[in-house]
Design a protein that fits this description.
This protein is of the alpha+beta class and 756 residues long. It contains 16 helices and 39 strands. The chain is 22% helix and 26% strand. Helix 9 runs parallel beside helix 11.
């Protein structure tokens, strides 16, 4: 070895590199101007020889350590006093292959001091543009910039199919005390598989996926994939403009009927078989492009305004339905690439359909490759298991008090709005975030600083996140699945609310299902379960939901919840749906419910679409189609969902007959609808419903669906003077068993009667 070279090299630091135990590889690797000249050091395991390429010349580097450490010392040139020269390596490997490459440690950091301050302050909302893996060009060289937060790691390396998964080859540089590690790898291209190898105190190195990865390989593999999510041509400008014109919360004044679906079981292929008889991995799934057409065709035909996709973020286990997220920034590879998912959203928008995604900031799984103990210590989760673990679910809980975690979650939420053009997020399990004692017994939880059970950090997190979304003023919405009576869920943060656009009305859902499952004979004793919801309907901005959770785990499908013989079940279901759509609040149905799917939902199989050709099921589907279109057509059904002015009981107390009658009004108070629903198999030929004004009442809907004068049925009814239900007028209408009726009428506040 060159004696001069041997004297000036720091052999302790060389050893740190060869044993992959440094968080500061740039201190020794790369080119450094020292008093003796230009010292260039490189560590490439399996390299047989390396030549330094500089100024059009090649300089052999000396192998100073058998592990693959090479070094050379060049005389100082005057120009180098100003700036390090550009250089590269010509590498000959031990299998005699060669490679020309720039030095990963020769490139400047992609982070500025301002970036780090924003990150540490929890206000870097587009953090995903820097964290993770990004194909970029630095100093004229294409490659991929990697960065990851691992504050307690001794060393972090990028490993992948490009470096034999060897953690010694691409050790990352720690950026001060930020906990962020970064490295630019030249000439790496999208499509490369990678993970992070992390070395923590007193632990063997372990592998973790990238929390910010934009893509993952198909299960059962779990490596992150370098993805370039730019360059997608969006064609939904008209949709975005229309949404933006509504501004802050404007959608509250629109019709909103949501079709909740699970992409993996909405429709499913026959799984392909390989030549060796094994099933072809992932062949049972339609890709996002195929699903775009199938979903759009169905949803538009039926009349829904939005789809809500159960989590599309990457997850390891199909049976989790996507709620055990490992890749928060990646659409699941089960259905294709990120750009194919963009295509799906774009296609739905082109067809006038909004897109809502399920989002899971409440917890994450303990899978070894994921976020749990990310750097060998509790990183993304609370350290105290009394706060950091869900005892019922066996999952970790995010530490909402860490600014870096807030960056991750808020950045992730905004990422789906900005990069994928989604219209809303539905936040899963909000109650589990708000309550420190959620699912815990006495002694198993830690009170907040005031001695209460509210998670103050989660509360502030929601206010922070939702303030940003409200501030966008572009019609973006965010929905809380909150199952308790927590106050002001949908009130603005400046009024001490959480700031959600809507809240799922879980109380209404449970009361509704409890009632509908009863034999009609016993319904009179539970009449208040159906009327109670209106006593608090204006306390929040609600969505009435019949979600996936209600048709699994032996809860029965919606049709099989209904009492009675076969035909009666379908009649009951229609009555229930009409009551739901007449009630105040936006609407959500899970897939299959609108054609009376028989078996419980199963994520492993497709919906039974063949049922839509059978008379009773087709009848429900046609009924629902008519109901959805009626809902969108008449503002009285949605315009004043949040106001006492939009709903009026005609008779809330007709328990003995189990009949519900009420009025829905638009914002003018003139154009209104009368609803009548008979929840028993008893025919009422002499039925009359009290109405507020004389004149014509036009029947537009009954137990068979839409009614028109063109179909030869009577649809015009004249109100007659005579008290009924405490009203001065009434309409006589022979009400069939399980009969329904919706009448439209018009009147003004001065009492001037008009005919439609």
């Amino acid at each position: 070895m060159n004696e001069r070279l041997e004297e000036i090299m720091n052999w302790a630091e060389v050893e740190d590199v060869t044993y992959a135990e440094t968080a500061n590889p740039k201190k020794i690797l790369g080119a450094h101007i020292i008093p003796e000249g230009l010292l260039v050091q490189s560590f490439v395991p399996t390299a047989k020889a390396i030549e330094l390429v500089l100024g059009g010349q090649r300089y052999p580097m000396e192998r100073v350590d058998e592990a693959g450490f090479f070094a050379t010392l060049l005389p100082m040139e005057e120009a180098w006093n100003e700036e390090l020269p550009a250089y590269s390596y010509h590498i000959t490997y031990d299998n005699d292959t060669t490679e020309d490459s720039e030095d990963p440690y020769a490139f400047p950091s992609t982070y500025t001091d301002r970036d780090i301050k924003k990150y540490q302050g929890g206000i870097w909302y587009d953090i995903y543009e820097k964290m993770g893996a990004h194909p970029i060009r630095i100093n004229g060289v294409d490659g991929v910039a990697f960065s990851v937060w691992a504050p307690n790691a001794e060393r972090v390396s990028v490993v992948g199919d490009f470096n034999l998964w060897d953690g010694r080859r691409h050790m990352m540089q720690r950026l001060g005390d930020s906990g962020v590690f970064e490295l630019f790898i030249p000439h790496l291209a999208p499509g490369s598989l990678y993970k992070y190898e992390i070395k923590c105190h007193h632990q063997e190195p372990f592998l973790k996926i990238d929390p910010y990865a934009f893509g993952f390989e198909l299960r059962p593999g779990n490596a992150s994939i370098v993805e370039d999510i730019g360059q997608f041509t969006w064609t939904d400008a008209a949709w975005q403009q229309q949404k933006a014109e509504r501004g802050v919360g404007g959608i509250k004044e629109d019709a909103m009927s949501v079709y909740e679906l699970h992409l993996g079981s909405f429709a499913r292929k026959q799984q392909a078989v390989n030549e060796d008889g094994t099933t072809q991995l992932g062949s049972e799934f339609y890709n996002y492009r195929e699903l775009a057409v199938k979903v759009a065709d169905y949803v538009k035909q039926e009349g829904y305004t939005h789809v809500e996709l159960m989590p599309v973020m990457e997850h390891p286990l199909d049976a989790s339905w996507g709620y055990q997220v490992t890749g928060y920034f990646a659409p699941t590879s089960r259905h294709g690439s990120p750009k194919e998912f963009m295509y799906m959203v774009d296609y739905l928008h082109q067809h006038g359909i909004g897109v809502i995604l399920d989002w899971v900031p409440a917890h994450f799984p303990k899978d070894a490759q994921g976020l749990a103990d990310f750097d060998g210590t509790p990183t993304y989760e609370y350290a105290d298991p009394r706060k950091g673990e869900h005892p019922d679910w066996g999952t970790k809980i995010f530490d909402y008090g860490k600014n870096e975690v807030q960056n991750f979650l808020i950045g992730n939420a905004l990422y789906w709005y900005d990069e994928y053009h989604i219209d809303g997020l539905r936040v899963d399990a909000v109650a589990s975030m708000l309550y420190l004692d959620y699912g815990r017994k006495d002694g198993e939880w830690v009170p907040n600083k005031y001695g209460g059970n509210g998670n103050l950090e989660a509360i502030e997190f929601f206010k922070h996140l939702n303030s940003i979304i409200l501030g966008r003023k572009d019609g973006s919405i965010i929905i809380a699945e909150e199952s308790t009576a927590w106050p002001k869920v949908t009130a603005a943060p400046e009024y001490d609310g959480l700031g959600f656009t809507y809240k799922w009305n879980m109380g209404w859902m449970h009361d509704f299902l409890d009632y509908m499952k009863l034999d009609p004979y016993f319904r009179k004793g539970a009449h208040n379960k159906m009327t109670f919801g209106m006593s608090y309907a204006s306390s929040e901005k609600f969505i009435l939901v019949l979600s996936h959770d209600e048709v699994v785990h032996l809860k029965c499908s919606m049709i099989n919840k209904m009492p009675g013989l076969y035909e009666d079940k379908f009649r009951n279901l229609k009555c229930g749906y009409l009551f739901m759509f007449g009630h105040a609040g936006k609407k959500l149905l899970f897939m299959g419910q609108d054609f009376a799917q028989l078996h419980e939902w199963d994520e492993k199989v497709s919906l039974d679409w063949y049922l839509t050709e059978e008379p009773e099921h087709k009848g429900v589907q046609n009924f629902m189609r008519d109901l959805l279109h009626m809902y969108r057509k008449y503002p009285a059904m949605w315009e004043q969902d949040d106001s006492w002015e939009g709903f009026e009981w005609i008779n809330a107390d007709d328990a003995d007959r189990s009949i519900f009658s009420f009025i829905r009004k638009d914002h003018t108070g003139k154009n209104s609808l009368v609803f009548v629903v008979n929840m028993t198999p008893v025919e009422r030929p002499d039925y009359a419903v009290g109405v507020p004004t004389r004149g014509r009442y036009t029947l537009i809907f009954d137990e068979n669906g839409a009614v028109s004068s063109k179909d030869g049925r009577k649809n015009a009814y004249q109100a007659k003077k005579g008290e009924c239900d405490g009203r001065p007028y009434h309409v006589a209408y022979p009400l069939p068993a399980y009969g329904c009726a919706v009448f439209r009428f018009q009147y003004d506040r001065a009492g001037i009667d008009k005919k439609l």
